[in-house]
Amino acid sequence: MSSPTQITPSTDAAPALKEWAAIVHALLEGEQVIDVRKGGLREDGRHFDLSARRMWLYPTAEHQRAELLKPAYRHWVDLATASPVGESITIGGWVDVTDVATISEAEHLDAIASKLIWTDDYATSRLKWKQRDPLWVLVMRAHRLDEPITVPWVEAYGGCTSWVTLAGLPADPASASSHPALSDVAFESKRKGVRDALPPESWQA
After folding, report:
1. Owning domain of residue 149
2. Is 10 a residue whose pLDDT tops 50?
3. What is the CATH number of the domain that holds 174?
4. Pick from 84, 104, 123, 165: most CB atoms within 10 A?
5. What stretch of H or E contains 57?
6. What tens digit of pLDDT does each residue of 13-33 get?
């Protein structure tokens, strides 16, 4: 594998979604095409909102614990490139969000549980946290960078938040040399499986 590319920060700003490094790894490997989210402690009103439909993936070690992943995926905590707090951040890819749903019922989470690498108990804990808020289900088409990009750490990137603005990345992730994690056919098959698993009224236009 090529060494991460070091680049100089620019004035360009790009939205980046913070997520466990193991989940980012799953997305970029095509093992998972969804993410489920609720707002972080540092977000406005602690509510999740979809900041963009195209975003970088920021792999973090914050809150990541191997025992909260299904047994077959626990070793991915060691395989995935996490960005420890205070150290430079290596970005390996980006996603387009193709579909968005919100769910509040345990039966709906159960319907997509097999499509997540989290344990069922941990996924359920995400659903139950802040019960007045729905759980967002994001269907993501992931793209792997041909060469990872490393950007410097900034203190504002830390803490429990879904979104950060990373300096030093192209404004449009698609302008970077990359390739889809899954073929068109494979992605559409997984996407359809998620769409069919949830009731039509849960999906946003």
Report:
1. 5-202
2. no
3. 2.30.130.30
4. 123
5. strand 54-60
6. 568 999 999 999 999 999 999
